[in-house]
Amino acid sequence: MKLAIAGKGGSGKTTFSGTMARLLARRGHRVIAIDGDSNPNLAVTLGIPLARMRDMPTLPNNLLRRTDDGVELSKTLEEISESHSLQGPDGVTLLVMANPQHAGTG
Ligand SMILES: Nc1ncnc2c1ncn2[C@@H]1O[C@H](COP(=O)(O)OP(=O)(O)OP(=O)(O)O)[C@@H](O)[C@H]1O
Ligand SMILES: [Mg+2]
């Protein structure tokens, strides 16, 4: 099952996503949570300390390549998870797309 959560700012997306991911993982499901927010904080809801989150490498921008049929991953999900994920205390695997450390020029 793939589930995307999007919606109005401050409507509870992160809280709902993290809680559901943890509950599913506790029930034995393999859960991969991808934080696509440009100001990511899903880790907190998953129970991952902020200090660990700061050390985490974000996903590189060369993961997708174009083919005649569309796009495909340039690495397997296992390879990506091995180098670019954190494990939460309930066993949720977290991937973070971007984590800007400071503002840049526009
Ligand atoms: N069901 C709920 N009842 C009451 N408060 C809630 C509920 N769900 C979330 N909140 C609170 O509402 C606030 C916003 O929640 P959350 O950060 O999950 O929203 P969000 O949609 O991810 O926000 P953003 O758009 O900033 O990413 C938080 O303070 C959270 O604790
Ligand atoms: Mg959020």
Mean pLDDT: 90
Question: Which cofactor or ligand species appear?
Answer: adenosine-5'-triphosphate, magnesium ion
- Major sheet details: 3 strands, mixed
The strand count comes to 5
The Cα radius of gyration reads 15 Å
Descriptive report:
The chain is of the alpha+beta class. The chain has one domain. 30% of the residues lie in helices and 17% in strands. It has helices at residues 13-26, 42-46, 50-54, 77-84, and strands spanning 32-35, 64-67, 70-73, 86-87, 93-96. A 3-stranded mixed beta sheet has the order 1-5-4, with helices on one face. The structure holds adenosine-5'-triphosphate and magnesium ion. Residues 9-15, 37 line the site of adenosine-5'-triphosphate.
List the topology elements.
Blueprint lengths: L12 H14 L5 E4 L6 H5 L3 H5 L9 E4 L2 E4 L3 H8 L1 E2 L5 E4 L10
Parallel strand pairs: 1-5
Antiparallel strand pairs: 2-3, 4-5
The structure holds adenosine-5'-triphosphate (ATP) and magnesium ion (MG).
Structural key phrases:
binds magnesium ion, two-stranded antiparallel sheet, 106 residues, binds adenosine-5'-triphosphate, three-stranded mixed sheet, alpha+beta, 4 helices
Structure summary:
By secondary structure, the chain is of the alpha+beta class.
